[in-house]
């Protein structure tokens, strides 16, 4: 097990995050946000702000920065601020004050008077359910409404009506914010070579493309640098308003500009996970065999309708064997901040509903919840011909039940003094995906090697994984491999999103290493080289032929080279036509609910996962632990309260609760390791998101076991458990 | 945060004679200055003043500048005080915050803390956003049509239960006030939170000797295990002799506009056997007179349950 390479830098303050860059002549921008959820800005009185000490410029829709909406293949259109007077949500960026110091900019921003022509704001998700719109097709060829029926079955309703046992219920989940520790921020500077932006983001090369598009300049003249990212979770996928504003203001002022959101602004000026409502009906035979699943899902969305939380598609569409299935996805557009991907988008809130419903079905059948899940274990997604490439969910459950002491669970929980104790379980799945990635491997004459790609490590462990896969692929010690990451000047790859980075980058490292070794051996046997005309092989970082060997550094020096590089791309291909791919897991939670005061606290938790090959168990465990803590947070703490006027009532870390150390006991993580080389050459599948997926349902199921109270919404709070 | 003038008075007399806002630990003041909720032009750093010392020789005397963490760790402090302190804020904040400042901390009402929202406490006459807003954390006791903000201190609840007094120094001398009388319910003037006169400074907290308060505790019920304000809390001290309750002190937090002494519960406990049934019977009146809001109709029941739990745990 290898410790995180960037760990010492992070705990000593040596890791330089975006806002840590202090450039000569740099000035500071403070973002102004709207205080209405819907309307037109009719005036902004900036006279006092412009006259305030240290103020250099004030930008607004009336005195704007030159930009246009960014267009990229991955994200489509990304909104950029200050280009019109329309306000569609409370907390929307509508201005930027630039001053010599941050405090001067902030104080001046407080002096700006904004006038609005206000319009009625639509802010209630619940009220919008009856008039919800069908969600856009998630991707070409896949509709928002999908029905799979067995031969001779007319409708999902018929399938449910014919099912001996049916459970049916409605579940809901709260709007959430990623709340990464590092607030969105950027430092931008224009040089003779173009624009440099330092800003935490999930893929430097995609951020560069969005900035180039917004600023209407060549992408080659934009360099984005983000070696360290203080948490992202989907909330730093798109380029942040701070990067757009810093870059445009730096161009206008010809000075480096830094823009940092306040914590309160992070909640509205970025994006959130949508709220969801889900109606599920499960039909089963008396022995627990599923006969029908109906999962209708509603998601809040912003007025631009650019994203919905795909809860039914992310879970019921694929998880269990069933002859009859109907899923749908609808959306309710609201005057709320943008919504976007957040760790396990679809799967996390979707599994709360599906896995709670499975628990309810197990109770209706008087069956053990694990037995019910294994009874319906699938070999392929319903209605699909492509079998799972590698699936060991049953083993996850067997090991998990044993480690957790599931056999001691009573159907009615148990008491420990004044605490009611219960256990719950839930399945977790997350699709195994990889994206095209390009990696450059460079062997250097000091016998070290560089392995580089542009993407990002927002705390995932990618730095460490790159050094390990690089060492393995080059057959050298890990400390001789220097990973390079977080710089758009590097080859494109390593986007941190969709739990894809290890499989994507790892496969590309293998390809580039193979190429550079081929080039090295060719160099060794070339004319005038030490092994001229010999059959050269490579092993242990050395070239060998004719009973002699040299390290690659020695060979480079002997041939007058300082480096030799190869760049290679690895991308998904034919395998997609042969199998279905996913990571799997079984998650277990024990909760304690106080008999009198009803607070629910998690006392034990375990996750057992089948995520293919684990490259580095230490950072893999950390990823899963973080994900599981996220799940506890969703289950018991997190939720944005949206007021009738569109304002978030709890948009700060004092009121938007996440767990503290005292809420989190030891987290037990176990991996069953079956490398999935049908999916990619490295055999690794994703870990970044699956840890959070099953937790909320496992907590809710444990609370039911402890108290007999079924709570069908998250977060579950004290008043839900007071009868 | 607007520019301000920072000075450090050298004596209590100097401090109370100087115009400005006192700064001790800064955990409330600096926070609210950053939010533009408080905009003092002159800040008086009183940390060098000789308002220190924890004396447990006869009851408890605490210098106003003693830090929460030091008081909590002091072996002679009644358990209800120590436990209330240890369940407050975070260790880092407890290391900074003074006991005098704790008693004057401002409400955590989100509308008070957002200068874009109407708030009668921050801006008299502007209206109360909480009464029809998100008010789950707000008060159900001691409220008025102009304010429903909860008093945020934990240790003040313990102090009120134990009949604590505070000593106030002012330009015209010192005076002593019972803490329970010091705090005011909002009425029509929620901006006036207490009996503090202009320039006055808390110099000391005095808890009268109460030997049986060694059997005391503080139960705080909240949405997470640490670093969060109370949905309901209860400070209790019990004088149990031969299984009978001779005397009791009970006060509640997280539910009222000031630390809320529950004398009716105390009365109902006296002379009863120290049993769960007695505790339940007595707690049944804890929320009498409560006016729940749209988001906190659970609070009367939670308050009663919290008092029962505190009495059970306090009686052990």
TrEMBL record, chain A:
Gene3D superfamilies per record: Aldehyde oxidase/xanthine dehydrogenase, a/b hammerhead, Aldehyde oxidase/xanthine dehydrogenase, molybdopterin binding domain
A Pfam family reported for this protein in Swiss-Prot or TrEMBL: Ald_Xan_dh_C
Start and end residues of each Aldehyde oxidase/xanthine dehydrogenase a/b hammerhead domain: 12-120
Highest taxon in the source lineage: Bacteria
Signal sequence bounds: none
UniProt keyword list: Molybdenum, Oxidoreductase
Protein name: Xanthine dehydrogenase YagR molybdenum-binding subunit
Organism, scientific name: Kibdelosporangium persicum
TrEMBL record, chain B:
Family annotation (Pfam families): CO_deh_flav_C, FAD_binding_5
Protein's UniProt keywords contain Signal: no
Keyword Oxidoreductase attached: yes
Keywords: Oxidoreductase
UniProt cross-references to SUPFAM superfamilies, sorted A to Z: CO dehydrogenase flavoprotein C-terminal domain-like (SSF55447), FAD-binding/transporter-associated domain-like (SSF56176)
Domain FAD-binding PCMH-type: 1-212
Protein name, as recorded: Xanthine dehydrogenase YagS FAD-binding subunit
Species name: Kibdelosporangium persicum
